[in-house]
Design a protein that fits this description.
alpha/beta; two-stranded antiparallel ribbon; single chain; eight-stranded mixed beta sheet
Length: 235
């Protein structure tokens, strides 16, 4: 991929991807957008050799006809060849917690075509006061990779010191000239899992979204930040 200076994946990664598709662990989305799941039922997925000497992952699946027609219309509109792009993360390093930081595990990833390792590590350094930080480069194998930041957290993002630390870290990754998409995956202490999506280039919107994150209490839904109304909404 030109966006990443040329990246070639090991065959083991392809086999892992096929296994994740077969198990249902890898969601199928339109344009890498959490708001647009295909809700496909994967029947099989394997790795096969290509005539050009490379390998590829293929999948056979069942999907709603209307959703698939929408995929085809969008593909034809931009003269795309078909197939699926995908996103993944590559571990960069692990930062141990500082001082009396709680026994909490985090993962911070950012797209490698939009942020350098130095920028990513600068943001992750702040989160060491929150817990142990697994830092990763994100790759989106698409024609134009999105500016995506992923934060996974075991614990809670409650108003106060923790929310301020998360905000201070993430605002370093905000792109003022292009909206940044933040994906949140939070595993609450009571076992609930909250997923949320925020797309913004406004630092005030980022601050408000994080300050009110603890209001999200319906784990079976995806929450999306409505910048016009300044609040989270469930989908």
């Amino acid at each position: 991929m030109p966006a990443y200076g040329g990246v070639q994946l090991d065959g083991r990664v392809l086999n892992q991807m096929a296994a994740a598709l077969r198990s249902g662990a890898l969601p199928m989305l339109m344009h890498h957008d959490l708001r647009r799941p295909l809700d496909a039922q994967v029947l099989d997925a394997r790795v096969r050799d290509r005539p050009d000497g490379y390998q590829e992952v293929w999948a056979r699946f069942v999907v709603d006809a209307d959703k698939w027609e929408a995929v085809e219309r969008e593909r034809e509109a931009v003269s795309a060849p078909g197939g699926f792009s995908f996103s993944c993360c590559e571990p960069l390093t692990v930062l141990e917690p500082t001082g009396a930081a709680p026994n909490r595990e985090l993962m911070l990833a950012a797209d490698a075509s939009h942020w350098s390792d130095a920028e990513l590590l600068s943001a992750a350094e702040i989160l060491r006061a929150v817990g142990r930080v697994n830092v990763a480069r994100r790759f989106e194998f698409a024609h134009d990779p999105s500016a995506v930041v992923v934060l996974e957290l075991a614990g809670t993002i409650s108003a106060g010191v923790l929310a301020n630390l998360v905000y201070d870290a993430l605002k370093r990754l905000l792109r003022p000239s292009r909206p940044t998409t933040f994906h949140f995956h939070v595993e609450e202490p009571d076992g609930r899992v909250v997923n949320a999506r925020l797309e913004t280039e406004d630092v005030a919107a980022l601050h408000s979204a994080i300050e009110t994150f603890d209001q999200l209490v319906a784990p079976s839904k995806l929450f999306v930040w409505d910048e016009k109304e300044g609040q989270w909404k469930s989908m």
